Amino acid sequence: MKNNLKFIDLFAGLGGFHKALYELGHECVFASELDPVLRDTYKKNWGKKTNIHGDIRKIVKENIELIPDHDILCAGFPCQPFSKAGKQLGRDDERGTLFDEIVKILEARKPKYFILENVRFIAKHNNEETWKAMKVEFERLGYEVDHKDYSPHDFGIPQHRQRIFIVGSLGTNSLDHFSFDKVDRYKKKVVKLENFIEHNPETAKKLPKPNQYCIQLWQDLIDALPKEVKLPGFPIWGMEFGANYPFEEKYPHLLTSEELGKYRGNFGVSLKGMTKEEQLANLPSYSRVEVKFPDWKQRYIRQNRQFYENNKKFIKAAVKQISKLPSQSWQKLEWNVGDNERKINNYLLQFRASGIRIKKPDFFPSLVCTNTQIPIIGWENRYITKKEGLKLQSLTGLKLPENDNAAFKALGNAVNSKIVKLIATELLVEEKKLIGAVKQPQSYNSLSKSYEPAN
């Protein structure tokens, strides 16, 4: 297209940035993606002649000339080092240093703009020192920078997925035309979930029988409680029901096997006569640490034991069955729907390491790159489909890897294309005036140019 802007797409994944800027009339001149399956998928979506390469570290180090001049640098650089779900190692993690590759490209090519996306915790990481260091680097290169957190549900999409979006413009006062307040005007009410998902689609993967059985056991426990007993707002840790091992000033790691033998572990099992190794195996995994339990963990243990003492005459039989489940994560429940109807399958579910999460059917939890946490539509006893996952990330029309696990991992790592498109519309508004492009839109509907996948 004549007079278009040129952009590069780093850590490209499925191409969320590409889709957004393509729909605004701009041209991708370079992309990089480490995963060969995603590189192949990217070409299927954007054409066989797409200029996509592999490891950006190798390119920057050995052949930066491969990266052509461009107007906009886009990057959803790996978020796991900074995410709440990860260990938040940040720039101490090898993946965290990929930010430095972005800096090197900015320094070498000096594009007029950049748009970056990451988990929102990056701004708070290491007492904000990580963000301060990043900002110093941008300013050293002559960029004015701004940032703001957004989630798809801010713009009508029923997914709660907070991410930080960072924009930069080269030159003094070069961001005077831009404000995230202008992006905010596109905010709209969330679409009702029932209007967003398909009804029992043929392509849907049903919840496996063992998972269904697990849900039924927890439903049995809920049904056994008198209606006047409020379901806990804290995470329910079934392993604490009947346990009395010490967890405050003393904790299992400090005790000998003889001392620990005086107590009960998971679901009240006696630890007497066991080796220390056997005792630890019969304790909750979170209690096997070598340091004092944090206050929040002590509080949850205390609350769970009290809840069981108050209600064991009602739930003892159900707890016995839950104790036989094969995974400790299945023996934990997060009831996040308050005083609403007590039917698990009326809600959205997730099987997480922290437990089975039950949440209101207003919007989906964040898609994550862990395929074991694919959201479940309880009332249809199924996982969300790949097509629905694409809609949640505003990537409708794109092809996905054929393997389900690879597809949902890619969706979990993807940037929401609609949010990028709205930000880019406001960031590039001055460029539109210069090149005589379309008028500035007044609503997102005027940005909804359809995307046709590459042949």
Task: Provide a descriptive summary of the structure in words.
The protein has about 450 residues and is an alpha/beta fold. It folds into 2 domains: about 5-195 and about 400-445, Rossmann fold (3-Layer(aba) Sandwich), CATH 3.40.50.150; about 210-385, no CATH class. Helix content is about 35%, strand content about 15%. The chain is built from 15 helices and 13 strands. It has helices at about 15-25, 35-45, 55-60, 100-110, 130-140, 180-185, 195, 210-225, 255-260, 275-280, 295-320, 385-390, 405-415, 415-425, 430-435, and strands spanning about 5-10, 25-30, 50-55, 70-75, 115-120, 145-150, 165-170, 235, 330-335, 350, 355-360, 375, 380-385. The chain has a 7-stranded mixed sheet, with helices on both faces. A 6-stranded mixed sheet has the order 8-9-11-10-12-13.
Describe the sheet with the most strands.
7 strands, mixed
Principal-axis shape: elongated
Structural class: alpha/beta
Beta-strand content estimate: 5-15%
| Topology pattern, helix = H, strand = E | EHEHEHEHEHEEHHHEHHHEEEEEHHHH
Number of strands: 13
Tell me the CATH superfamily of the largest domain. Vaccinia Virus protein VP39
Q: Rg, please?
A: 25 Å
Number of helices: 15
Compute the number of structural domains.
Answer: 2
| Helicity range | 25-40%
Distance between the termini: 18 Å
Which residues sit in consecutive blocks of at least 5 with pLDDT less than 50?
Answer: 80-96, 437-453
- Look up the CATH topology of the largest domain: Rossmann fold
CATH architecture of the largest domain: 3-Layer(aba) Sandwich
CATH class of the largest domain: Alpha Beta
